[in-house]
Amino acid sequence: MSLFDSLVGQVAGALTAGGGDGDVAGGPAGGLMGVVTQLLTDPQHGGLQGLVQTFQQQGLGQVVASWVGTGQNLPISAEQLSAVLGSEKLQGLAQQVGLNPQELSGQLAQWLPQAVDQLTPQGQVPEAGALQPDALQGALGGLLGKFLGQG
């Protein structure tokens, strides 16, 4: 089994974790899409704008700027992502999808750059509150299709 096949299996498993209602995202508290949606739309933390600001405050402004911009996305490590999100938040998110925090941060390190990139096609972060969860899940569904279509 290739590394890609392993990753697709893990992502597909995480995406459907907690589902059961036919929703690929598994609802707001289930699946990796639900976690990414929560990170990018959570009004308590400023949504996508707040997430971008948090990355900047943690010294990863150049990384997150590459995701927002129209060029190539810079990678982020699971460790860097864990530092940005904080252990308490990561633990809570991991519990939602039934993963340990290290597994979740590894998967988010793969998905979050692409999700931010998809949601900022013009190189601009949408205004706070302008990002709708349904639009986000549509973009993430497209990403899932790309991953699964490459097998």
Q: Your description of this structure?
A:
By secondary structure, this protein is an all-alpha fold. It has one domain: Orthogonal Bundle (Arc Repressor Mutant, subunit A). It has 8 helices and no strands. Helix 7 (101-119) packs across helix 8 (133-149). It is globular. Residues 1-30 have low confidence and may be disordered. InterPro entries: YidB, YidB-like. It holds the Pfam family YidB.
What structural keywords apply?
mainly alpha, Arc Repressor Mutant, subunit A, disordered N terminus, globular, 66% helix, 151 residues, 0% strand
Measured between the Cα atoms of the first and last residue, the distance is 11 Å
Query: Quick one: biggest sheet?
Result: none
The shape, in one word, is globular
**CATH homologous superfamily?**
YidB-like
Cα Rg: 14 Å
Query: Helix proportion of residues, in percent?
Result: 55-70%
Instruction: Give the H and E element order.
Output: HHHHHHHH
Mean pLDDT: 77
Under the CATH scheme, which class? Answer: Mainly Alpha
CATH topology: Arc Repressor Mutant, subunit A
Strand element count: 0
Poorly predicted runs are: 1-30
